[in-house]
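Q: Now give one record:
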Amino acid sequence: MYTTKINLIKFLDITFFCYFCAAYKNKKVENRKKSLSILLPTYNYNCVNLVCGLQEQAAAEGIEYEIIVGDDGSTREEIISQNKQIDALPHCRYIVRGENKGRAAIRNFLAQISRYEWLLFLDCDMQLPDRNFICRYLEHIGKGVIDGGIRIGGDKRILKNNIRYLYEHEAEPRHTAKERGKAPYKSFRTTNFMAERSVVCECPFDERIRHYGYEDVLFGKVLKKKGIPIKHIDNPMVLTDYEANEAYIEKAEEALRTLYEFKEQLRGYSNMLTKIGILQRIVPLWLIRWWHVLFGKLERKNLTGRHPSLRLFNLYRIGYYISLIK
């Protein structure tokens, strides 16, 4: 009786092992039919660790793949030298462009030189959440444009006085797939998304936008106009790198200048324009403009200092934008 039980256990173990091997083999065969171009725009940022992680995951999935890092005219030679290590990795390329042409142009360039049917665009200053990141995207190949979202990382105790961290952390509840799915086109971000190559080539990013901000919002608007679906999933990249306060405020100001330049195209797709539209029904815009003239420098001093106020940041952005209106 005892021997029979032992033999039964061995039989079940062998059966389970054979089943697992067969399932794993079938998955590999299925994945070989899939192909993916992983595209990373970069500017003055070391991408080596991220590319190594992506290369390891893609290879483990048994898919056809390539990883291309497009350097949009970096000025720091030490960063360029470090990123050249990427060329030594299997199926990976590092391409340096001599002139900075903006976030829209570098994405279009990467899409044009890519080989495979599906493109995965990732910002280079993010971290992989785990070892199954690529696997989760492969499950959605063939389902339109897929937005994976972002997750806010970092140590709150260390970053409690970083304005970028405070802003992103406050917005984090809106980053879930469920929340983004309520307004799928307006919620689209280029930070972490997958799309069919033909879609990106048919609906290229607007290269008139050469400065920071809103190329992703306009892309979402074009997708809606073309009737191309966006599906939001919970497969976030992790944001852990936060600029110093001065650098982030400069970036925010640049984004507001971009918003002002393309305000007609972005109307109905920008929360800032919506807020200002509501605000001007309550308060004369000239009054806010004068407030910014009188107190904008003091607000900016707080925001670039050691104890920035998130409420003040929102007020400063509104005042800065209104100061651009002729």
